[in-house]
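ok so i was messing around last nite and threw this chain in just to see what happens. nothing serious, just curious
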Amino acid sequence: MEGLRRALAFLRDAMDRTNTVVGASTGVIGRLRDRVPMAAALTLLSGCSSAPSRNILGSYFPSWMICALIGMAATVAVRALLAKTGIDTVLPMPIVVYLAFATAFSLAIWLLWLA
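result:
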């Protein structure tokens, strides 16, 4: 946020001193047209204040990675359960079914844990 304030203050000072910037139009509309893209770019480049991450044994891991690992582990457990009951052999496209399980478990963990 401080960087945005500095950039906007720099633009304001530059416009007040010379009343023009190289290649810029004069007048209120020209100055507004020059400042809006700069303010939009600085706002989009500022990003998040912090990414959702978890400290595990001194290292920060992204939360989505942890949720994906838990989802894959849950899918392996479901596959073992389906194989034990015999349902695994009648699945039409097992790779798609297990991919859907992994995605569903990962997103469910994300919603339950971080929402």
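not much to say yet. The longest strand covers residues 53-56.
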